[in-house]
Amino acid sequence: MLRRWTGCQRTIYNGKVSEDPLFAAQRRLEPASGKTDVRTPLDQQYAQFKDRELTPWLYEVPSQILRNGAVRWMTARQRQLKGLGRAPRRRTRRDFNTVVITRELFRFIRTGRSVVIELGTKAKPLGLLPFRAHRPYGLPNTIVVRESAGQWFVSFCYAHASERVLREPHELAYELNRFDDDAIAHVTLGIDRNVRDNCIASSDGRQFRPEAIVLERMRRKEVGAKRYQRRIARARKGSANHRKLVARLAGKKAYAPRARHDFAHKVSHALASADARFFVLEELKIQGMTRAPKARRDETTLKWLRNGARAKAGLNRSILQSCWGSIHRYLACKAARRNKLVGLVPAANTSRECSRCGHIHPDNRDGARFVCLRCGFEAHADDNAACNIRTRGIGRLRRGEYQAVKTRKRVAPVRRKVSNTTGGQPAHACEGESPRPEHRTERTQDPLAA
């Protein structure tokens, strides 16, 4: 039944999305049809999608489920009009596997020592939904139920009174910059992330690594996934055996993302709970680092040359599985709740520079061991890099680079006017080249981007 609720809510959402091109086509035919005002309705009506013959299944779910589908479309459309997101698009089972349930269809009921969620209305109850909460919570007005690889999750938000006043990043940077050198070094923590063994090292000597049993389970799940893929290739599509194998394959592949998600949350929580008030990380361009190499071609023989794509694919996989971006996002969120600052520094030569004398040389580092060729300083390579990151972060803080309120750039496409003298093409356009839309740049104040 929850899957049916999800599918019906997705049907209403896609129906609202499909209205836009329908009314756009009517606007193009407006002069010939004689209609004077044809606009896409910006409302939350959904009754036009219910039909006893075409969509009889929509009558089998509560009306609140259908209404929430229209509300989700309206929320996405309002974000588009405010410039906060793209236009709503059609969704499938892969990217729309959640159902939003409002308080008319659920109630929290205590049964003994546990609490369960009763779904459905009082006249037509659906059943009880037991769940395990990982923290104390309040009663919400809306819950979201999601299915992932055969497992179900419920999430919700609730309002609570907070006595802490959250400050902006530039305010925290100004306050930290007033400390003396010893105090700022005591409250600053440098964090180094590497891809060699998924080690997260901090400047205070701590190192975080995934558990050995978790890595072994991930390896075994990957081997099992390949075995199920071979069995799926031999199974007949549409059969019950094929569906069972696909479900088991999804369970095998779902373990690794959950394990990495758990590791990123544990590391970010351990770092944010420390006594430090300023966290410094390397500014890693993950999207550029994981970009596939360009194809190479011999100009004389017109044959494709080796570009190292296979070796680069393995490196890209390791980078994406190292949780670099997740740790940064989670740490920034948890540090902001504690009025702590997170800053970035350039990553060049952080692992080749000596944290004691500042000497930079490629031979200073040999794998996981760092030995300075000038002063003979020895340390773990990741710990030395974390100390360099902390020093650079303090330098940028002293120069006031974290105190400025940055602005966020918004780019909106603007249609270029077409000249009639060139047969529908702009006067400067080359033959066979389509005109490109101009862009208008707007700058708005965004203190959170500082």
Which helices and strands appear, and what pairs or packs with what?
Blueprint: H1 2-28, H2 30-33, H3 63-81, E1 98-102, E2 106-111, E3 114-120, E4 125-130, E5 142-148, E6 151-156, H4 169-177, H5 181-186, E7 188-193, E8 200-202, E9 207-208, H6 212-234, H7 240-272, E10 278-282, H8 286-289, E11 296-297, E12 304-305, H9 309-320, H10 324-337, E13 341-345, E14 365-366, E15 369-371, E16 378-380, H11 381-398, E17 407-414, E18 438-445
Parallel strand pairs: 7-10, 10-13
Antiparallel strand pairs: 1-5, 2-3, 3-4, 5-6, 7-8, 8-9, 11-12, 14-15, 15-16, 17-18
Account of the protein in words:
The protein is of the alpha+beta class and 450 residues long. Helices cover 38% and strands 19% of the residues. The strands form six sheets. It has a five-stranded mixed sheet. Helix 1 (2-28) crosses helix 3 (63-81). Mean pLDDT is 85; it is low at 418-450.
Element order: H for helix, E for strand: HHHEEEEEEHHEEEHHEHEEHHEEEEHEE
Q: Could you tell me the radius of gyration in angstroms? A: 28 Å
| Count of DSSP H/I helices | 11
Number of discrete domains: 2
Strand content of the residues, in percent? Answer: 15-25%
Shape: globular
Overall SS class? alpha+beta
Compact description:
38% of the residues lie in helices and 19% in strands.
Short descriptors:
3-stranded antiparallel β-sheet, alpha+beta, disordered C terminus, single chain, 450 residues, globular, 11 helices, 5-stranded mixed β-sheet, 19% strand
